[in-house]
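Provenance and format

Records in this collection were gathered into a single text stream. Each protein contributes a sequence line and a token line. The two records reproduced below are adjacent in the stream.
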Amino acid sequence: MGTYDIERYLNIRSAYGGSFGPDGDRLSFLMTTTGTPQVWTVEGPREWPEQRTFYEERVTFASWSPERPELVFGMDEGGDERAQLFRLEAETGVIENLTAMPDAKHRWGGWSHDGERFAFASNRRDESVFDVYVQDRNATGDDAELVHEGDGWLSVGGWSPDDSHLLVSQAYSNFDQDLYTLDLESGTGDLKHVTPHEDEGDVRYQSASWAPDGEGLYLVTDHGEGVDTLYLAYLDLETLDLETVASGDEWNVGGIALDDETGRFVYSRNVEGYTDLTVGEFEGDSNDPTAFETFPEPDLPGGISGGVSFDPDAERFALSTTGDTINTNVFVVDVESGEAEQWTAAPTAGIPPETFDGSDLVHVESFDGLEVPGFLTLPDGVEDRESAAGDTPVIVDIHGGPESQRRPSFSSVKQYFLDQGYAYFEPNVRGSSGYGSGYASLDDVEKRMDSVADIEACVEWLHDHPAVDPDRIVAMGGSYGGFMVLAALTEYPDLWAAGVDVVGIANFVTFLENTGDWRRALREAEYGSLEDDREFLESVSPTNNIEAIEAPLFVLHGENDPRVPVGEAEQIVEQAREQGVPVRKLIFEDEGHGFSKLENRIEAYSAIAEFLDEHV
């Protein structure tokens, strides 16, 4: 039916993760040309890029040294998320494994300002907790210095301007963190707690950066009585007082990128899923660290931007930009003028970008009056609702998390199904991030199934749409979204023509028992604990309600998934088959939590397309 097959769409490339080299003339970025993200460099706008890594496995990030032509990148194996850190010498191409401990996770914490050392967090001592390490740029493996033994989920937020301290974050859940400073010169390994955290429940402290004088931090937080959304704040490290720098005006300030030499910064607001950027410079007055001037807002295509990296003089910054109809590319913005220039040219596989379809932001009233936002995209030819024929099938694509948010960014899979004549609906049900902490908490523990009821409300809303065929509606989702698919199929079985569960949770008890040790406490904070909530977790698990399922089901998973173990797929498939449900299963031996390799993505989504052709 469509113009191009799924393989063509999946060959649309993306370029992102830009980082300026120390000379400011060269930009590294990640691009998916070979089928998995690899490191590339480019020396000017849309110049011919040079591929720098050549692995079958995905590269997760790349960060230039501030002083030398070398960069560190991260890479795991088979999707196991046990990332190792590697150094690439840009002039010679020589690559060295700096960590060489494949059983442990390594989470990048940044270069020191002199480029002599770098920091990271790792669970190499105890799989369930993260410690903080500092390593000389030429050291490898055991040569890393353990500078703090952690007791939970720690990450490193960067070096102080004089390299004497590290900023350390501890997460208790996705909506509850604390910040600490670690004095590297004292040698004690002690953390100093710096964030106010009274008896007010969860408080977020995120995206923290050192102020240029090292005497404070800029961060986003929702600290304060009655505060629901994230705002930009300054934290004085001597008094530990918080001052508001900028409010999100009912929307979250998504984060700040700050150059700690010049005080220049970029912060974003997430307005109904779209990015609103503010570019500015702090005035450097120690009497008022919240004072700043602003520069013109960059004119960027697409509506979604992020991943800011300044050049050495902070005269420009790189960031990634995308949109419904715009595949991801890296742009470079002049700070003072706001002029933006596209530096990468990730191709669209010969598919004309003007054939991509854009979404509309809609709101659906749920069972209790809550307004649920979502993005509805109609295939070309049915945009005119008055003349719509009511024969359009719909894929309801449910995001994971659950503390995540579907935003109007580019998806080659979505564009393929639109080309095939499907409409696409992407709801942000209660529990989603982006709409305040109150909205995000509406699905916690015993309120879990209220979010599934939101899906029912969305389908009933689709029934009233003149373009939609109510008998051909598909539930599709990954990770926690996979649970939502299974729950929607078992709770509301008569609404669905088919379901597609990608790396989804089938039973909360077995999931929590078998997920990575380092993740369990964070996930119990959202779903409920095995000790206190086991009976409830069993009651809402799709495997324990499987007798209700009617719609054909396709389950896909990665054998090496450390987050949602493959046993979740095995048990839901076995039990659904026992109910006589048409079930298809596809397991990838070299993937983890999702499909990172192009050949696997082609196989997976070709199979999904065939499955939907058969049943929808």
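Adjacent record:
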Amino acid sequence: MKNKHKFIAAAAVASVSVSAVGASAASNFTDVPAKYEEAVQFLTENEITAGYSGSTFGTSMSITRVDAAIQLAKALGFTDDDTYEDAGFTDVPERGQWAVNALAESGITAGKAEGKFGAFEPITRGEASYWLANAYSLDVDETVTETPFTDVNERFGPYVNALVESGLSLGKSETKFGAADKLLRGEWALFLYRGAQLPGNFLLSLIHTNDTHAHIDNAARKATVVEALREENPSSLLVDAGDVFSGTLYFNEFKGQADLEFMNLLGYDAMTFGNHEFDLGTEPLAAFIKNAKFPFVSANVKADANANLSSLMNETVTDKPVDGKVYNGIIKEVDGEKVGIFGLTTAETKTISSPGDDVVFEDYIEEAEKAIASFKAEGVNKIVALSHIGFQDGGGDNDVTLAKEVEGIDVIVGGHSHDKLDEPYIDETGTEPTVIVQANEYNKFVGTLDVMFDEDGMVTEYAGELIEVDAQNEDKTYVFEENQEVKNILATKYTPAIDKVKAQVVGSASAVLDGERANVRTKETDLGNLITDAMLAKAKTIDADTVIALQNGGGIRASINAGDITMEEVLTVMPFGNALAIMDLTGAEIKAALEHSVSLAPEQNGAFLQAAGLKFTYDSSKAAGSRVTSVQVNEGGTYKALDETKTYAVATNTFTAKGGDNYAMFKTAYEDGRVSEPGFVDWETFTEYLAANPKVDASVEGRITDTKAAQ
């Protein structure tokens, strides 16, 4: 978390608090005239400097470039315990290296010459104008070099103009700025004091999660991460972009209430609905909402006619939200500034979950525009969308399209597609930029985002990262210790029940089901067939036109013994919790995928595909890329030759659909918007299939045949 507060562009405003001081405030220094008194007190009270000596501030003394850098870095909120990129200057003393590196990395100064900062040289007023204009993101017009002053050259003209227009400086006289004069320590104190009081700049910090899917085994470490981030910035907002429901035995057993206890304890500020919140209808969702100690936001979900949800829904934007209620949007006050938060849920929910006919998912673009209009009417110009529509999902709605189509959204905290956005994604289609973030899945990460707004509510700076909850040190110990309260609740209230569920029998196998690594990565196996049959059956309930299912061999991690199949065995076979995806692929793309699948055969390859709904032959003695000799697709109970010009609906997991294992053709389809992500977890799909077919008698059926091996 060390680099969380480093902005991509120059830092824009002092993060220290400005002390309320008056002209009569007494200084401890003997050399501070009245005109400098407030500024000096500001610097000393905020520990930016302790003065030149115990009794003097050095007001009329010149300040060196390194001392000016240290004071500016502190005023901007940079700290010497952060790690900044080495700027490569060889003349900077150790005490000032962190500050010089921070300013250089932020684009505030580039030094005097290559490899030289000029650390012990006095900084001139002209040089200071350049630093200050960059540091405080002043409006600099580099095409205007003329100034009211006769002693300012073209190099510093735009920056001096920016200082004058912002009120940071009036110059030394009507005609002289003193551009070449050495900057005095008292003058520098005034500049920093005035810079800290510039109007309009506002830093919003968000802590965000999404698609946690009942993965709460690491809840105690997650709590530690959130606590640490809150300690860094107590004004942070903690938000979730949906899909707390479904995914582990904790949900099967506790219907979201286990997750909710920890969300309440952590103090979430808002959440929107994911599609999986509707998996069991609306009754468990209503119980989840009612017990929440935070409000929900959902601009496009209308449930006024639903018996379970109608009393919880509020078709309004409010600055007085009530916990356990749902609003189109809410207004939060953060450090005196109003921030609007609204929510969106994918319209795919109608077909990939079970909301019922009386829950309506309205057009996300139209409802987003209405929400923004409502915020604007309340004077809110800093707007955050909690979005469960996917980053670039092909289901008909996604975050990138939302950012391009709707003006006025400053930040989109996304979910649904489980994307791991290590850095924020910026869309600059409209007149204002939109920052998009998403924190992967399963409580693996907690996301952080800092955005700086100008006085008009436009994002001018941003910095974001993902904090790995289960990060380990070199000795395999966890970086983040467990929160003891959360650990105790989990161990005593929830885990014992899960241990019992793991022992439950979910089916019976007449023989060993082959999931051995050497086999599932080189040839057809009975377990591979069973898994893909289950995947295809589930996909058909969502899209009846789905005819093929493909499972990468690397996603099958163990065999299943003959006899009773326990839930624990299933979880051992499929430990990753990969979710379902449905791709629209041409026959040519399917054939290319099969070529990639067998490209290393007979060597082991995690990309080797187990399959349902098709059978194909290949010759491993031929050159890679030219091995597949025939492909047939089961359409309506009859196998027909693959038509390379035809489009087929193909089920797989989201890892593979996004190009995992180097499936470039799948990645292309994903980027083209030809992949839907209904999101049902593989082990759940498998156990659901076993429930319908409890006595398993799977076999190898000739779906995949190496003709060379058969010779």
